[in-house]
Design goal:
With 277 residues, the protein is α/β, with parallel strands linked by helices. 45% of the residues lie in helices and 15% in strands. The protein folds into two domains: 1-31 and 171-201, no CATH class; 51-165 and 211-277, Rossmann fold (3-Layer(aba) Sandwich), CATH 3.40.50.1820. The protein has an eight-stranded mixed sheet, with helices on both faces. The longest helix is centred in the last third of the chain and has 21 residues, at 256-276. The protein is globular. The termini are far apart. Keywords: Hydrolase. GO terms for molecular function: hydrolase activity. It comes from Pseudomonas farsensis.
């Protein structure tokens, strides 16, 4: 708390006189993830994984046999955070490929953001068999929705605890760290320069989502408001919304209702493909 108070004080003072400098420091912090080790409960699943390396050095873990489901974790996340869902999918007869996003795990890079994650999904999909589904958590969920706009093909998709648009995330980060108005504006400009896309365009309300989908969120998520899931669901015509009473931002991944809802979605997607054949 003392460190955060100090950062806010520095940002609040210097942000008026040197907004570009403060914005640059905060931009680097915003895009530079820590590589956090797996928790003890993740280790058994990690031990059973096959590690694969895709083109451009992208690292992933693979389990099971059958139609392929591609997973993308969130900011400072890990593939094995999906442990309960991975077990469910493998038992149901699927191959699960879980990426380590850019600058995470053994994948290359020093910085990460939603555009890099979306490109990683596209790169992975180009090397994998046709995807039964693609599933993302938090920033990984936002990157799944973006990658679908850029040509990612799958029979179904799942967004878990994801934000609906990037601009709100940036504004919230800037306010949380005490940046004054000029520094906040400079921060957003610098992020746009780095990601190469206007952040206003990274908004699900602008997207065309024409595949079956599932939007999952916990009402008590303190990092990404559950209201974001309502926005995603509203923009995604062929989606179902599952709003859980509790689960926070991370524990929602272990909820058995998530695995069951994903299997139901996959069955619905298969039926849709058969009907259109």
């Amino acid at each position: 708390m003392a460190t955060l108070t100090w950062i806010r004080g520095v940002n609040g003072t210097l942000g008026h006189f040197a907004p570009e400098h403060i914005a640059g420091r905060m931009r680097r912090a915003f895009m530079t993830p820590r590589n956090l080790p797996p928790r003890q409960w993740e280790l058994p699943l990690l031990a059973t994984a096959e590690r694969i390396t895709l083109r451009f050095g992208l690292s992933a873990l693979r389990w099971g046999q059958g139609p392929t489901v591609l997973l993308m974790h969130g900011w400072e996340g890990r593939p094995t955070q999906f442990a309960a869902l991975i077990d469910t999918l493998v038992v149901a007869g699927h191959t699960v490929v879980a990426l380590e996003g850019p600058a995470h795990g053994r994948s290359p890079g020093q910085q990460a953001h939603v555009v890099l994650f979306a490109r990683a999904l596209l790169e992975a999909a180009a090397e994998l068999p046709p995807l039964r589904a693609v599933i993302g958590h938090s920033m990984g969920g936002a990157s799944v929705l973006l990658a679908l706009q850029w040509g990612l093909r799958a029979e179904a998709a799942v967004s878990i605890a994801a934000p609906a648009q990037l601009l709100g995330v940036l504004r919230g980060f800037a306010r949380h760290l005490g940046m004054p108005a000029r520094a906040r504006a400079a921060f957003i400009r610098q992020v746009e320069r780095d990601v190469g896309v206007q952040v206003a365009r990274l908004d699900v309300s602008r997207y065309q989502l024409d595949l079956p989908g599932l939007v999952v969120h916990a009402a008590d998520d303190s990092l990404v408001s559950a209201g974001e899931s309502q926005l995603i669901h509203k923009a995604w015509f062929d989606s179902q919304l599952m709003l859980l009473e509790e689960g926070g931002h991370q524990r929602v991944l272990a909820d058995p209702r998530l695995g069951q809802a994903v299997l139901e979605l996959l069955a619905r997607a298969v039926q849709r493909v058969r009907q259109s054949a």
